[in-house]
Amino acid sequence: xxxxxxxxxxxxxxxxxxxxxxxxxxxxxxxxLAGSGIALNHSADxxxxxSAVSAPWIIRLYxxxxxxxxxxYLAARHWLVGNEVQTVLxxxxxxxxxxxxxxxxxxxxxxxxxxxxxxALFDAxxxxxxxxxDADLPIMAIHRIGQGCGAVVIADEQDxxxxxxxxxxxxxxxxxxxxxxSVALPAVIQARAANxxxxxxxxxxxxxxxxxxxxxxxxxxxxMDTVGVLFILIALSGLWMFLRHHLRRGxx
Amino acid sequence: MLAALLSCGGAFxxxxxxxxxxxxxxxxxxxxxxxxxxxxxxxxxxxxxxxxHPFAQARLRYWRKNGKTAWILDEIGKEYPITAAFxxxxxxxxxxxxxxxxxxxxxxxxxxxxxxxxxGARVRDxxxxxxxxxxxxxxxxxxxxxxxxxxxxxxxxxAP
Lengths: 252, 160
Known about the structure:
The structure holds 2 protein chains of 2 kinds.
Chain A: H1 2-41, H2 43-46, E1 52-53, H3 56-61, E2 71-75, E3 78-82, E4 87-89, E5 92-93, E6 103-107, E7 110-114, E8 119-123, E9 128-132, E10 144-148, E11 151-155, E12 161-164, E13 171-172, E14 177-179, E15 183-184, H4 187-196, E16 201-202, H5 203-212, H6 217-250
Antiparallel strand pairs in A: 1-16, 2-3, 2-15, 3-4, 4-5, 6-7, 7-8, 8-9, 10-11, 10-14, 11-12, 12-13
Helix pairs in contact in A: 1-5, 1-6
Chain B: H1 2-6, E1 15-16, H2 20-28, E2 35-38, H3 41-51, E3 59-65, E4 68-76, E5 81-89, E6 92-101, H4 112-115, E7 123-124, E8 127-128, H5 139-158
Antiparallel strand pairs in B: 1-6, 2-3, 3-4, 4-5, 5-6, 7-8
């Protein structure tokens, strides 16, 4: 009986000691998970869904790398540079990306930038005017963009050519056309574009991945799984000690 | 971890519920030619008040026939723009539609039961005079629809 009581006390002491150790070890994780969880639940209020993270070491964790083009489009001293994700006009990142840009044309007071599905219009200061898509255009898909018939000209793969001065009305063009082609970027333009074309991730996404451990890949998830198991052990050992204490007091 | 479990990692994709041409045919029968409103500083100021941010483009198309005007607008709910259409007649919303939805959550705003709430609404002191019931899980999309409805009134007021 004395031996049993001694053994029980010893087990209780060991459990209590490990319960405290696990609690200390889990403390930092609890603070992190609770803090980041609260922030995620209020991400819209905190603006985390609208802000972006571009720190190189975080971007590297995602295996992302900026594609810096060495060619771009020049029209009336305006430079258009882009990659598959973002587009820069005159050193300003555009809200409308034009992956697979086909060209840039300056005509009248407007700049026309095209890819296969979109003709984006900008004013002379580079401010966004309007995006035109197939419903606004006389052709289904743009194959080339150029200058002719005194205006901007777009053509489809079958070489049906239409011109417009304002992007509102289009007419067939039979005259000579100078098609927009890419040119090698001067170093200064490329450097400025490179700075803007760095990959970015929404802050909310990064925080969510840090919260779940996914940001550190497979091992990050394992670590967070281990923390989860740690929490379970703390809960079980705490519960066991609580019940043991109360059962002993109820049955002296 | 709870947030990670509850969050869904759906992929971004455009869901087109109605094309612009189909919408215009539904409203007007034979659609009228598009008209253009230039967003000058006056319009921009009024739109900023309605949207809570500057309007992104300098020119906008609209369609008007038989006293009805159709406005097609883009507004970000959470991450991606929702393309919605509003038909105004005599300073009242006649109908509203979601044409393209791009967010991963909140597409319930496309349902007629939600959109019918806009019909008959006017703007009083910069707000819709009819309460628009929210949808659980679609709060930001509902708010975006509300902002676009108010912006449509602003644009209608400036359209020649």
